[in-house]
Amino acid sequence: MSISKLVRDFSQLSEYNKAGITKAQRRSPAMEWVKLVSFKALYLLVIIGLPLILTDFNIWQVLAGFFIMHWVTGVILATIFQLAHVVEGAEQPLELSNGLIENDWMVHELQTTANFARNQHLLNWYVGGLNFQIEHHLFPHVSHIHYPKIAPIVERTAKEFGYNYNMKLTFMGALVSHVRRLKELGNMDPATVVYSPS
């Protein structure tokens, strides 16, 4: 997962440049390429180059460590994202025939995400607040250090307006809910799945 991001940034920047998004942000497309290539090269120099220079490890050992590090990172991220999106109570609505979804963006975020282990401070620190997925989606520009304070406000407001605030109390509770949801999805007959607005 993280290795694909290492590579995918190049195609993403190319798409942004072609679509005019870079210029709309008052950025120079050429300078964004220079920054991207420079930071990727610096990253590889630090992560692969320094161990080769400063240790007795050979290239194969360093590359093995590099790929193991990214594999572990990918497993952790995939687990966190699954527990935040594929649990009981989190919907996976199908789009309408015109390619749109039935609800407004904010309602859609409440219906398709879940929080877990909100009071487990070590986990919150370790995953950078991604266990507060609802707040992460609703307030992407707010630092995750504020999520524990705003989450109860978001929960009260959602309930006040009649929306579900999907929260699993513990990591293990979310993991069990994820397994149950996978079983439920796996037992569905694809031919009978139709979009039905909530």
Q: Give helix % range.
A: 55-70%
Structural class: mainly alpha
Strand order of the largest sheet: 1-2
In percent terms, what proportion of residues is strand?
under 5%
Number of strands: 2
Secondary-structure element pattern, one letter each: HHHHHEHHHEH
Summed over residues and divided by their number, the pLDDT gives a mean of 91
Radius of gyration: 21 Å
Low-pLDDT parts are none
Total number of distinct structural domains: 2
Terminal Cα span: 32 Å
Compute the number of helices. Answer: 9
Which word captures the global form?
globular
Fold and architecture overview:
The chain has 198 residues and is an all-alpha fold. The chain folds into 2 domains: 2-83, no CATH class; 91-192, no CATH class. It is 63% helix and 2% strand. It is built from 9 helices and 2 strands. It has helices spanning 2-19, 21-24, 29-54, 59-85, 105-112, 121-126, 133-138, 147-160, 171-186, and strands at 115-116, 167-168. Strands 1-2 form a two-stranded parallel ribbon. The longest helix is centred in the middle third of the chain and has 27 residues, at 59-85. It is globular. The relative contact order is 0.10. The mean pLDDT is 91.
Brief digest:
This protein is mainly alpha-helical. The protein has two domains: about 1-85, no CATH class; about 90-190, no CATH class. The protein has helices at about 1-20, 20-25, 30-55, 60-85, 105-110, 120-125, 135-140, 145-160, 170-185, and strands spanning about 115, 165-170.
How is the secondary structure organized here?
Elements: H1 2-19, H2 21-24, H3 29-54, H4 59-85, H5 105-112, E1 115-116, H6 121-126, H7 133-138, H8 147-160, E2 167-168, H9 171-186
Parallel strand pairs: 1-2
Helix pairs in contact: 1-3, 3-4
